[in-house]
Design goal:
With 249 residues, the protein is mainly alpha-helical. It has two domains: 35 residues; 173 residues, Orthogonal Bundle (hpI Integrase, Chain A), CATH 1.10.443. Helix content is 50%, strand content 7%. It is built from ten helices and five strands. The strands form two sheets. Strands 1-2-5 form a three-stranded antiparallel sheet, with no helix packed on it. Strands 3-4 form a two-stranded antiparallel sheet. It is globular and about 70 Å long. The chain starts with a helix and ends with a helix.
Length: 249
């Protein structure tokens, strides 16, 4: 919002200098305060418990891929096999599954910001996807003529139909509550990925690209508290190095 305001302000200022307008109306505009998004990633204790709990769950692959790639719910559910490259070990996020407005139907639409992106997930993610491919082919054989997956979706039910966001949300909330985290949201899986990626040493530009944020500034603003903690951790490590060097001397 601030950038947009700056562009309009500059344009109007130029018009004022040229005499097209007497006063710049943007001078008296007070921008609303931009609230930082509510970020609640899984705690260090919650993630291992979550991974153990999803083993054998019907949506294990959906949950696992989400928490370790940071894809949005609609992007995971809208992922198609033609956008999974097992040879290169990449996944291209070109679309998301959305409910049609005013209808009880769903469609594939462009991802948020209308900007496709390609990510290179960890090897275990690609292994999970390979397993899902095998499971889906088995389901297709069992379903026979009842199989229906015209969009070539990665995550489907036993008959090839897409998974609905609401169903995935309800199953996730039930699982989270059973683990003692009733306030955990599906979107917090995305936050968990981002925080762990930054803690693991990924630079902010890489995390921005993987998350599909419009700018690195937005990513930094959203997860700035993580980078601040990383700076403090870095200072602590340097302090220990100094103390060790002094003792050795």
């Amino acid at each position: 919002m601030k950038n947009t305001h700056g562009v309009f302000h500059s344009a109007l200022k130029q018009a004022q200098r040229l005499g097209y307008i007497q006063q710049n109306p943007a001078d008296n505009i007070t921008l609303p305060r931009v609230e930082r998004p509510d970020v609640q990633p899984m705690t260090d204790n919650a993630l291992p418990a979550f991974l153990e709990a999803i083993q054998g769950h019907e949506l294990e692959a959906v949950f696992f891929v989400t928490v370790f790639t940071g894809m949005r719910k609609g992007e995971v559910l809208g992922l198609t096999w033609d956008n999974v490259d097992f040879e290169r070990g990449t996944v291209c996020i070109r679309q998301q599954l959305l409910k049609k407005r005013g209808e009880n139907a769903f469609m594939l639409a462009s991802p948020k910001n209308d900007k496709p992106r390609t990510i290179s997930p960890a090897q275990d993610i690609m292994a999970i996807l390979r397993g899902e491919r095998v499971r889906q082919k088995r389901n297709q054989l069992q379903a026979g003529t009842m199989w229906d997956n015209p969009d070539n979706l990665v995550f489907t039910d036993a008959f090839g139909k897409h998974l609905t966001p609401q169903t995935v949300y309800v199953r996730f909330k039930s699982l989270a509550a059973s683990l003692g985290y009733p306030d955990l949201r599906f979107h917090d899986l995305r936050h968990t990925y981002a925080v762990n990626a930054l803690r693991g040493g990924d630079d902010i530009k890489t995390v921005q690209g993987n998350l599909g944020h419009h700018t690195a500034a937005f990513t930094l603003d959203t997860y700035g508290h993580v980078t601040e903690q990383m700076k403090r951790d870095s200072a602590d490590r340097m302090q220990r190095l100094i103390e060790q060097a002094r003792k050795s001397g």
